[in-house]
């Protein structure tokens, strides 16, 4: 087995790649016009999926972004914490000085005082002595490392009691076409050549890529193919790029003593959502959740990544009671009034799981209920308002439970933790 602390030839090539073409390609001047939002590491997701909406918002949050690259996740989380007046800090760790300089410039453009930067490798955590963290982000990193299990073990060792992580790895089926081209470019542009030479060869190949190449049929990579030199290099020339089926990823987590609190979005891993045939659904219902998730991945064919939130085994938080009239629902990002507008006349919400759009049924009353969710009103407040519209308490509870359960699984409506 390769010693994960010692760079091999591919690891040397990987370091050269991110120094030459920091990924993703970002311009700090763009921070004045938009904040990039995604998963993992959205603050409301961390509150809900990692801490079960039980950790008070007044408790400082110490977060590590392990392999921050040019800073998308770190900038998002630090900005959200600053906007909501949340105490704590975000530590950005990366071994690429070039990538860190871009992330730092983005933070300076936003005048973020709750973020700091450390140059170093996540495979050398002991020597870095960063302390312990309530939350750790490791997004798009594990699948490039010589020993992902050892890296996970290291991250788990600095996880504070009760803490959790947000992880993302590549998935194979949604990356169909990528690995074929990577194999071809291994021959035409070996990883021991300088990054600029390899990139030039990849561009030449892409200009004449046959119409029959599977990558041309795959709609998952618009951001990479239009993401400048860094995007193209990361997609086709990365010296080490492994992909995990959901089963293989869950095995990796299990071996590191971790368990999932959420596969993101949960409904994505439910094959019954896009298989309406009653006999098929009846058979699906008898399968364990892991097998259902594997089935969804195999059938949908478009999962290019897996995003999960995890805790140590046995430390998974108890799910909060969304039916409690004291609970405070909150839209994860899209305002309720906008989500309600997206509902069709048949009361379904067209929801995009990447390139797959599925009509998700909701109660008819959800159209009037969603605009009331503002992060301040309790479930009891919502019930009182609907009572004035002729919806009795018992009917409201049924409507609310169905609405919340459906939209929670789509990661659209969550619950706020106590102040």
Automatic annotation (TrEMBL):
Domain of life where this protein originates: Bacteria
Assigned keywords, A-Z: Methyltransferase, Transferase
UniProt record, GO biological process: methylation
InterPro entries: Methyltransf_12 (IPR013217), SAM-dependent_MTases_sf (IPR029063)
GO molecular function: methyltransferase activity
Gene3D superfamilies from the UniProt entry: Vaccinia Virus protein VP39
Residue ranges constituting the Methyltransferase type domain according to the UniProt record: 65-163
Keyword Transferase appears in the UniProt entry: yes
UniProt name for this protein: Class I SAM-dependent methyltransferase
Lineage: Bacteria, Pseudomonadati, Pseudomonadota, Alphaproteobacteria, Acetobacterales
């Amino acid at each position: 087995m390769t010693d994960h602390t010692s760079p091999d030839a591919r690891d040397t090539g990987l370091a050269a790649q991110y120094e030459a073409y920091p990924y993703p390609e970002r311009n700090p001047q763009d921070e004045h016009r938009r904040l990039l939002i995604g998963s993992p590491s959205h603050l409301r997701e961390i509150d809900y999926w990692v801490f079960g909406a039980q950790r008070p918002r007044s408790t400082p949050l110490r977060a590590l972004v392990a392999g921050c690259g040019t800073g998308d996740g770190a900038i998002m989380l630090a900005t959200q914490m600053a906007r909501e007046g949340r105490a704590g800090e975000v530590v950005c760790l990366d071994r690429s000085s070039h990538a860190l300089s871009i992330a730092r410039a983005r933070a300076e453009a936003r005048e973020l005082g709750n973020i700091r930067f450390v140059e170093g490798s996540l495979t050398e955590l002991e020597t870095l002595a960063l302390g312990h963290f309530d939350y750790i982000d490791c997004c798009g990193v594990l699948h490039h490392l010589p020993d992902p299990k050892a890296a996970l073990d290291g991250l788990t060792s600095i996880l504070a009691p009760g803490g959790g992580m947000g992880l993302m790895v590549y998935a194979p089926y949604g990356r169909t076409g990528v690995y074929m081209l990577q194999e071809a470019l291994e021959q035409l542009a070996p990883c021991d050549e300088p990054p600029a030479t390899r990139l030039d060869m990849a561009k030449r190949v892409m200009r004449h890529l046959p119409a029959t190449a599977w990558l041309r049929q795959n709609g998952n990579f618009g951001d990479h193919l239009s993401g400048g030199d860094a995007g193209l290099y990361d997609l086709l020339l990365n010296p080490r790029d492994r992909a995990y089926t959901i089963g293989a990823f869950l095995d990796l987590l299990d071996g590191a003593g971790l368990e999932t609190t959420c596969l993101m979005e949960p409904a994505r891993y439910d094959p019954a959502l896009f298989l309406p045939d009653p006999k098929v659904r009846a058979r699906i219902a008898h399968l364990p959740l892991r097998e259902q998730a594997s089935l969804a991945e195999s059938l949908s064919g478009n999962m290019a990544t897996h995003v999960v939130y995890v805790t140590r085994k046995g430390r998974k938080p108890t799910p909060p009671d969304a039916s409690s009239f004291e609970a405070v629902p909150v839209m994860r990002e899209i305002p309720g009034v906008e989500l309600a507008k997206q509902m069709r006349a048949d009361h379904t919400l067209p929801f995009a799981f990447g390139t797959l759009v599925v009509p998700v049924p909701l109660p008819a009353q959800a159209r009037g209920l969603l605009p009331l969710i503002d992060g301040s009103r309790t479930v009891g407040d919502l019930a009182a308002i609907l009572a004035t519209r002729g919806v009795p308490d018992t009917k409201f509870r049924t409507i609310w439970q169905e609405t919340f359960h459906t939209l929670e699984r789509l990661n659209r409506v969550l619950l706020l933790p106590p102040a």
